[in-house]
Amino acid sequence: MLNWSALHFAAENGHTAVVRYLLANGAIWNAVDVNGFTAGDVAWSANWTQCYAALLEEGVRQGLLGALLEKKAGGEESDEEEDDDGEEAGEVVNDNEGFLKSPLRFVNDPNDPRRARCMDQDDNMVMAGWETEIMRRSAERLCEGLPKRRVVLNVGYGLGIIDDFLQSHSPALHVIIEPHPDVVKYLRTSHPELASAPGVVIIEKTWEAALEDPQLWELAPEGFDAIYADPFAQDYKDLKVFFDRLPDLLRGGDGTEPLSQRARFGFFHGLAATNRFLYDVYTRLVELDLRDIGLETEWEAVKVDMDDAEEVWEGVRRKYWTLDEYRLPTCRMGVI
Question: What single DSSP character describes residue 176?
Answer without folding.
Answer: E
